[in-house]
Amino acid sequence: MRLSFWRPVAAVAIIVATVTAFAYYFAHNPSVGQQLQRTSLTTMATVLVLYFCTIGALALINSSTIRLCKLRMKSSESLLLTAYSSVVNFFGPLQSGPAFRAVYLKQKYRINLKHYATATFVYYFFYAAFSGIFLLSGLLRWWSVLPLVLGLGAIIALRNGFLSGARLSKLDLTGWYYLAGATLLQVSLVAVIYYIELRSISPGIELWQAIVYTGAANFALFVSLTPGAIGFRESFLLFSQRLHHIDSSTIVAVNILDRAMYVILLLVLALFIFGTHASRRLGVKNT
C-alpha cells in the first residue's frame, strides 16, 4: 500500500499507544495524580494567557516569513490566519497547518511556494538553533554566549553569501532578524510556560532545567506524525533525562497538564474563529 495510507494509520497507532501508556502509568503511579492536584487555578490561568501570547509570537513569525518572500500582510490577518491554522494543525490530519497556510497564501497572494518553503526552512533553522542552545545549556555553563556567536555567524554568512543558494537568493534577507527575534520570543515563551508547569508539579525545579526541558520538547516537533507531537515529545523528554534531571512522574504529570491547557486554548480559538466568521473573512472555503 502507498505511504499516504500508512502515515495516518501510524499516527493513530502512536496516539493509541501513548494514551494507553499514560493510562497504565497513571494507574500504577498514584503520585502523578497527587502532583497534578497541586496545580492552582491561578497557575492554569497564567499558562493559558502565555499560550495566547505564543499565538501572537507565531503571528509575528508568519508575517516575518512572508516578509522574506517580499510580501506584506496586515497584523490582524496574520493573527487570524495563525489562529485558524493552529486549530487545523492540531485537529486536522498529519499536522496540516503549514500546508493550509501555504495554500492560502498561494491563492490570495500568489506567493511562490518554493520561495515560501525556503523561507519556512529559514524559520526552522532559527527554531532548531535556539532549541539546540536551550537543550545543551545543561552541559555548557557558558551557553549564554552562544546566541551572540550564532547571531554574529549568521550575519557574516548572509553578508558574504555563504547562505545564498539558488532559492535563498530569491528571498529578501534584509529582514531576517525579524524572523530570528520572533522565533526567539516563541521559544522563550514556551520555556516560561514549561517552567511554570514544572514548578507547579515539582516546586524544586530550577530555571535551567526548564530551559533544557524546552529544548528537548521542541525537537520532537521535527519528527512527529501526531497532533501536538503526542508520544514523540514524551519520548524525547525521557531520553534527555540525563540533561535536565527531571523524573519520569513529573514529565508525565506536566505533559498531561500542558496538553490539557493547550486543548483549552484551541477550543477558545475555535470559538473565536466561528464567532468572528473568520472562515468567511479569510476565504477558507476556497482554500
What value does the average pLDDT take? 77
What portion of the residues fall into strands of 2 or more residues? under 5%
- Rg measurement, Å: 20 Å
What is the number of beta strands? 0
Q: Helical segment tally?
A: 13
Main sheet makeup: none
User: How far is the first residue's CA from the last residue's CA?
Assistant: 28 Å
The domain count comes to: 1
Helix content: over 70%
Low-confidence stretches: none
User: Which sequence of SSEs, written as H and E, runs from N to C?
Assistant: HHHHHHHHHHHHH
What global shape is seen?
A: globular
Structural class: mainly alpha
How would you summarize the topology of this molecule?
Elements: H1 3-28, H2 30-36, H3 41-68, H4 75-91, H5 97-109, H6 113-136, H7 146-160, H8 176-201, H9 207-219, H10 232-239, H11 241-244, H12 248-275, H13 278-282
Helix pairs in contact: 2-12, 3-4, 3-6, 3-8, 3-12, 4-5, 4-12, 6-8, 6-9, 8-9, 8-12, 9-10
Please provide a written account of the structure.
By secondary structure, the chain is mainly α. It has one domain (37-282). The chain is built from 13 helices and no strands. It has helices at residues 3-28, 30-36, 41-68, 75-91, 97-109, 113-136, 146-160, 176-201, 207-219, 232-239, 241-244, 248-275, 278-282. The longest helix is centred in the first third of the chain and has 28 residues, at 41-68. The chain is globular.
